TrEMBL record:
Molecular function in Gene Ontology: zinc ion binding
Family annotation (SUPFAM superfamilies): Concanavalin A-like lectins/glucanases
Protein's name according to its UniProt entry: B box and SPRY domain-containing protein
Pfam families per record: PRY, SPRY
PANTHER family for the chain: B BOX AND SPRY DOMAIN-CONTAINING PROTEIN, B-BOX DOMAIN CONTAINING
Entry annotated with the keyword Zinc-finger: yes
Source organism superkingdom: Eukaryota
Xref: InterPro entries: B30.2/SPRY, B30.2/SPRY_sf, Butyrophylin_SPRY, ConA-like_dom_sf, E3_ubiq-ligase_TRIM/RNF, PRY, SPRY_dom
Amino acid sequence: MLDKLTVMPQKSQELLQMYISNKIVDQCEKLQLQSATITKYVAEVLPGKNQSALSAASWARETVIQRLIFVRNVCENEEQRLLEKVHTEEERTHQSILTQRAHWTESLQKLATLRTYLVDMITNLDDHGLVHAEQEIFERTEAAEGILEPQESEKLNFNQKCVQSPLLHRLWASTVLCCTTGLEEIRVDEKTISPRLALSEDKKTLTFSPKAKTYPDCPDRFDHWPNALAAKAFHKGIHAWRVSVEKSCAYKLGVSYGSLQRKGPGNEARLGYNSCSWVFSRYDKEFRFSHDSQHQTVELIKCPMQIGVLVDFDGGEVLFYDPNSCIILHSHRETFTEPIYPVLAVADQSISLVQ
């Protein structure tokens, strides 16, 4: 009986050892297969991937170079064309000025000669002689009356339109508005926000509030229209910023003078309805540019998610741009006579200045 009990554990131990041995063998086979797979990957796949990466990098590098060469050539050709137009316009203006100078110099000589003649008549002739010379004096003075006074003429002014170029315009706007280093750091002046607006802590997001909020009374605050001005004004140079508008179906954005009226429901404080503001606006699916109650419809295929604003103060231009599609939405020429502020208005959801 004892012998039987001793044999049973020995068999169990042998079975256990066999089981463990089989497990180890299986594991070794798996490791061998895994090693073979890795070896094949390193020997066959990685070299192919490396060659593929080298080829792709070479293609990408060549694409960048070729496209930039093309752009550079186009820009150089456009530069040459525009500079030639500038030179031609400069020559035309210069020639017009020379022609005018010669004309008026001759006129001055005629007038001086006539004056000398008249003074000589008065000095040397008696009354009888003056009466006798009346007809000659009349004819000479009548000729002088035909010499008109100089008038302002556009022919004497350099025509800035000679440098208008859709290509240059688009490249310039794209470069400024699509390069984040060129964007201004704009923040809303909380003293100007309408009671219909709420301002985020970072002073970049305006949210429309159907119920008027209570803010401290301030002469700078808009008390009726849902408007707000930025804290900083621009009085020279080129400036650009972006506004996220994807959440709103009713907004305005652009620039205005600081002298814009702040109080009351009249057009003096309504953006785009006075001579102090220039804005791009959306109402549902209608887009337009407005200034001094003059409205221009802007036809868009889809609603922009962002709108870039580009101002050239010295060049006298405000431009609205879709940075996602690289499309100029509208451009307006204006001679700015006061510092201008970025201006915003929203009557649905929220809009935000993009960091």
